[in-house]
Amino acid sequence: MNTFILDFDGTLCDTRPVIRRALLELFKQAGRAIPDDLDLLSLIGNGHTIQETLQILGVSAQHVPQWISDYRHLYSRHEHLAGLFDGVADTLSTLHAQRDRLVLLSNKGHMAVERALLALDIGRYFDLILAEQPGQPGKPDPSVFSQRIAPAFSGLKPSGCIMVGDTRTDLAFAKAIGSRACFAAYGYGQEKDCRAVGYDFRLESFPDILTI
Fold first, then answer.
1. In the CATH scheme, what is the code of domain 3-14+83-211?
2. Residue ranges per structural domain of the chain
3. What are φ and ψ of residue 14, in 5° steps?
4. Does residue 20 sit in helix, strand or coil?
C-alpha cells in the first residue's frame, strides 16, 4: 500500500482561472494597479500562500488580513471556473479501490477546499484532508508531517509516503520530511525550480500515478 500525499491546486484541480479572477477583482476594488498577468501566473506557479502572494504584490502587512478576507469572498464567487484535470476522478477512484492511502494536503483555505471537494465529488476518496488552518503549519514546514499527518495513521513514516505536487513548495516539503517526491509536470510549477529541488517521479498527467 502506498501513501500518497496529494497537493490540490495545480495537481488535482485547475484553479488558476479562479485565483486570477479573484486577485484581479481584489486589486480593482481596492483602487490599486492591477498586477500583470505574467506576474500572477508566476506567483501561482511558485506555490505561494495567499498571504505571501499579497505581500509580494505590495500589500502592507497590516492590511493583509482584510485583503485575505476580501479575496476569499471573491474566490467563492468564481469557484465554478475550477475543474479537475483530465483523469483525476477516475484515477482517485482506482487508487482508493486499490486501498492506497490518500492524504490531501493544501495550503489553501480549508473552507475553499471543503467546498471544492463537495462540488467536484471527490472528497470520499481521501483518508485525511488537511488545508490551511490558523495556528497550524503548512507546506513546506516539516512539522506538517509530525503534527498533522503522522498522528492520524499508526506507524506511518515519511519513507512510506510519496508527496505529489506541481510546485517547488511541494517538492521541498518532501525533501524536508524525507519522503519520495513526485512532480506533476502538467501543473503550474516552474520546471527549472522543481528540477533544482529534485524529485523521484514525474507525471505528465495525473493518471500516470498508477504506474508508481
1. 3.40.50.1000
2. 3-14+83-211, 16-81
3. -90, 90
4. helix
- The dotted CATH code for 16-81 is 1.10.150.240
pLDDT tens-digit readout, 127-150: 999 999 989 999 999 999 999 999
Q: Which three cell numbers stand for residue 141?
A: 514546514
For residue 151, say if its preceding peptide bond is cis, omega within 30 degrees of 0. no
Cell numbers found for residue 53: 502572494
Q: Which three cell numbers stand for residue 49?
A: 500562500
Q: Which DSSP string do the residues of 96-120 spell out, in sequence order?
A: HHTT-EEEEEEEEEHHHHHHHHHHH
Q: What predicted TM-score, i.e. pTM, was given to this entire model?
A: 0.90
Q: Which amino acid is at 52?
A: E
Q: Helix, strand or coil for residue 56?
A: helix
Query: What are the cell numbers at 167?
Result: 510546485
